[in-house]
Amino acid sequence: MKCGAVEHWLLTERSDTPLPMAVRTHLAECTACLLRRQALLDLERLTKRLPLPPSPPQIKARLWERLDRSDPVITPAPAAAPHRRRRARPRHTRLVAIATVACLLIGVGLMIGRLSKRPQTPEPEPSKAPEVVRVVPIPKKAVKPLVVRLADQNSQLAAASNATQRLDVFTRMAEEIETDALAKARSGPVDEISRLVQLHQMVVYSGIAARTSELPDSDKAVILNQLTRSLTSSAARIERENTTLLPAVADMLKPMAATCRTLASDLVNGKTTLPAVSPIFDDAALAQLVKNSLRLANEKDPLKRAEVSAETAGLLSQTIILFSASGDTESVDGLGTHLSTLMESGVGDNLDRAASDDWTGDRKGEMDLVRQRVDLARQVLEKNLAQAPPESAMGLQRVLEVSKPGWDRAFKGGKGKGKGPPMFKQDFMPKGRDKN
Amino acid sequence: MDDADEPLLVRQAQAGDRASFAVLVERYWERIRRWLYGYTGNAHLAEDLTQETFVRAWSAVRSLHGLTGFRPWLFRIARHLAIDARKGPRGKATRELPVTLASDAPEPVTVLLETEALRKLREACDRLPSLNRQAYLLWAQEGLPYSEIAAILDSTEEMARWRVCKARQALVKDLKDYLGQS
Lengths: 436, 182
Fold this sequence. Notes:
The complex is a heterodimer of chains A (436) and B (182). Chain A is mainly α. Chain A has helices at 3-12, 21-29, 31-48, 57-69, 91-117, 146-159, 163-187, 193-212, 217-242, 247-268, 285-298, 302-325, 329-357, 364-387, 390-402, 404-412. Chain A has 16 helices and no strands. In chain A, α6 runs antiparallel to α7 (163-187), α7 (163-187) runs antiparallel to α8 (193-212) and α8 packs parallel to α11. Chain B is mainly alpha-helical. Chain B has 2 domains: 1-94, RNA polymerase sigma factor, region 2, helix turn helix motif (Rna Polymerase Sigma Factor, Chain: A, Orthogonal Bundle); 105-182, Arc Repressor Mutant, subunit A (Orthogonal Bundle), CATH 1.10.10.10. Helix content of chain B is 68%, strand content 0%. Chains A and B meet through α1, α3, α4, α7 and α9 of A and α2, α3, α4, α5 and α6 of B.
């Protein structure tokens, strides 16, 4: 092992991580690396001892006073969602919003009150609610379903403003698919692995590789270096896992490792031509979600981006209903939050951009179509809410509440006053956001 | 620290149980304050932001359904509040002298050396690029894994690893006279 590799290992691992044999052997022979290790150990020890000025106890007391004045409310987590600029709202809009929330809470309270007075076994009659599946509670899962995780990435993609952020999202997407494929390889069902391998290839080539050419020159070398290492470690992880699997299952995963290795080696060799990826003709939500993410990343026209986001919103609405019917409330809530983000960033913000570019008003019709599509997605949820049994209804009701700001934003998107042609508004463009 | 009961505490807090939330506050108050102090360089601002973090967390705890859990979610709230605060009138962070340096009492040489090293370390941390500093303090002080650091910083695990790596490299270089002598 060379000094560079040992230094890298020392820099990324904690001091209490057991030393691998190769590192130990090197340290026994290399004084420079031994000193480097000692310096890193000292640094870690010192950092833990950095002084913190004492805090007056009344600070915490004031916290409880403030908490006494506020109760937890159901809102889309402001901090859990990707951080974005707050829009100033007029006072009267806020009052209306507060009144609406109050009405909704009272409504939900009344509903809960009524439900609690009902006799047991409120099973819906099949003839009255044919399209709602009977609730079968599923055991609590440690990991969310892949479709929920990909929906999260999709909503982040809608909010991403540059190629680096988009590359980040696709890298996470590939990791999510890889993790799911490995989990299925370990404990089944294995028949889904091939489709996941195909989706992974699509994300790696059409999502990750396609973004690398858009990276800014200033950061390109560093990011590509990171990406290469990430792909190589993914391939190594899959190959390592393969040694513990049945040969037939391992064979199914091999193309996934090969995809990572191929792109990593292409990046090292500076190869820019991408291999052709065979399109997936699959209507499953997962495949649609990946395809829509790729379309979103490739699309430059804000109106088209809004259209793709509206389409994805429809897809998420359908998926939410399926999860709610199976009693998976956690996934329902997660998808509701992602749906709201998608509405705000993917539909609302893009419609605004489109309207601001469309100073002649030629594309107003197209914008209306996008809003109609969004409305359709909401109607699907509302229709199912009206016919759902109580167990599912609560989840759907919550989704509609959580995603309400998103729907409102989507409907308002692009309806502001025209701001004139782009050459007149250059001086008024908002400054770039501080990423720190 | 026993985190095994955390999911239960969070669920109870989501159901409106103030006592469970109080346990979470006790568990994370100092950690959040310490990290915010390292990030902002201002003890009073860190206190205010810590308080605000828990107020926000209490009001939004029911919407927490994250895969990554309560801890990264809480640090994300703190981080976003700190980002907003840096843009406000109290904007630019100014580091106050640590309380421990104000003492005139004679101290053994080793303690003095360590105090000096800590002061230099704090200054060196302040010179790090903000995201690298945030990542490093989460890693070194809070002991968070790269996956959680990535979730807090809206980044990938690889990027979080790279930031910690770069920060450590820079700090070792800056503090070369104080490290490796023990």
